[in-house]
Design goal:
mainly alpha; two-stranded antiparallel sheet; globular
């Protein structure tokens, strides 16, 4: 939790959660960093809170200078505190010592991308391995969230990060978001348990289509024709992959589609639940609420089977130690990869993150095919490639549109 900077099973889900945070300042005059080439909006109040509370009577030599430069789509602080004394008769402001992250932002961001991909791939591998000997996706979904919640509580206890207070009004706003998160997460796992991991991720590539449809027909936002056209390859590719998928069954297909709808619902309410709380705390509270949503169906639908033979069969197949360690690590990797996705989004421009999210899906599909030896038909492979290409095109167009929209806001 301390490693990250929000609320989906997928990168897009995390993006929706991250949008819960409202910029600390609304005045464009205090915005640091140009967004003309895709920069993330970083506000002076967030970069250097002390600048907001400077004593106006202080001499210039005591005021720290903050500068932000863009390099490779990244925003990074350059300048620091004043280095000259009044005795030197100069108001020169020099560079303060910078840590490794400030000196090599590209390396740090690359590390975040690598860990995001690595943790996501490991999560999918362990998750599917568990389902091969313990086919209870509702219970496993509860374990995912439970481990994450414990991690959040421990992090709060040690003050990394400090727990943000929550009031009844904010709780009411977060409940719909958490419900969408819970349903989307559970149905994703039902699909993972029923079909090949690669096929589930191919179906989940349709999520941008549902987001666009909800934006236009529910929120009343006009979606440009170019954006709709970019979604055509996604629909065509998923259809091609589904028709010849060797592991196809309706449970896996319908569950993945419900997951897409649920995460779209979550995205809609995320936009309505804007809050000043940081994304790490938002994700923690959302996970806690989602856990309470997931527990009842797990008990009702899988409880009797688990008590009769579910746990006993799993332990007899792999042993108590491996069974418990698999459950712990799959929950830990689930929480950490979501946290890393949020942290990565905060470090790069939206376009960079969108492309990274597409590549992440390619990595997961590729590694799952290699690790589990899934056989796919030629048509399924071609359809998957077309769908992923469509998602990449959609992500690129949408990110560019959002950047232009923010540019226009700051120009005004």
């Amino acid at each position: 939790m301390a490693a990250a900077g929000a609320i989906s099973g997928t990168g897009s889900g995390i993006t929706a959660l991250l949008r819960l945070r409202r910029p600390a300042a609304r005045n464009p005059a205090i915005a640091a960093g140009s967004l003309a080439d895709g920069g993330s909006p970083i506000w002076v109040r967030q970069l250097c809170p002390s600048l907001i509370h400077l004593d106006r009577s202080s001499p210039p030599s005591r005021i720290a200078a903050a500068a932000v430069s863009k390099k490779g789509g990244l925003l990074r602080p350059l300048a620091a505190a004043a280095s000259s004394s009044p005795a030197e008769g100069s108001d020169y402001v020099g560079e303060a010592e910078m840590g490794f992250a400030a000196r090599y932002p590209a390396l740090v961001t690359g590390f975040f991308f690598f860990m995001w991909y690595f943790l996501n791939v490991i999560f999918n591998i362990i998750n599917k391995t568990i389902y091969n000997y313990f086919p209870y996706p509702y219970f496993v979904s509860v374990i995912h969230l439970s481990v994450g919640v414990v991690y959040c509580l421990v992090s709060w206890a040690v003050g990394l990060p400090k727990r943000a207070p929550i009031d009844p009004n904010l709780l009411k706003l977060l409940i719909p978001v958490a419900v969408g998160h819970a349903i989307g997460h559970v149905t994703s796992n039902v699909s993972f348990a029923a079909v090949a991991v690669s096929f589930t991720h191919t179906i989940k590539a349709l999520e941008p289509f549902f987001n666009a449809a909800a934006s236009q027909f529910i929120l009343g936002q006009q979606i440009p024709l170019t954006l709709w056209l970019s979604l055509a390859p996604v629909v065509i590719g998923v259809s091609m992959a589904s028709l010849t998928e060797l592991s196809f069954n309706w449970t896996g297909f319908i569950s993945a589609m419900i997951s897409n709808i649920s995460f779209t619902y979550r995205s809609i309410y995320s936009k309505k639940a804007m809050t000043d709380m940081d994304s790490t705390n938002v994700y923690a509270y959302t996970s806690i609420i989602a856990l309470f949503v997931c527990i009842p169906p797990a008990i009702l639908l899988e409880g009797p089977q688990l008590m009769q033979h579910g746990f006993r069969d799993a332990i007899s197949k792999v042993g108590m130690t491996k069974f418990l360690s698999d459950l712990f690590w799959v929950g830990m990797f689930y929480h950490l990869y979501n946290q890393l996705a949020a942290n990565t989004l905060e470090r790069v421009a939206p376009l960079t993150h969108a492309v990274g999210n597409v590549l992440k899906r390619v990595f997961v599909i590729g590694f799952s095919i290699i690790v589990f030896g899934n056989k796919i038909s030629t048509q399924t492979g071609i359809g998957t490639c077309i769908a992923i290409g469509g998602v990449a095109l959609y992500s690129y167009i949408k990110a560019k549109m959002e950047e232009e929209k923010r540019d226009n806001i700051f120009v005004r």
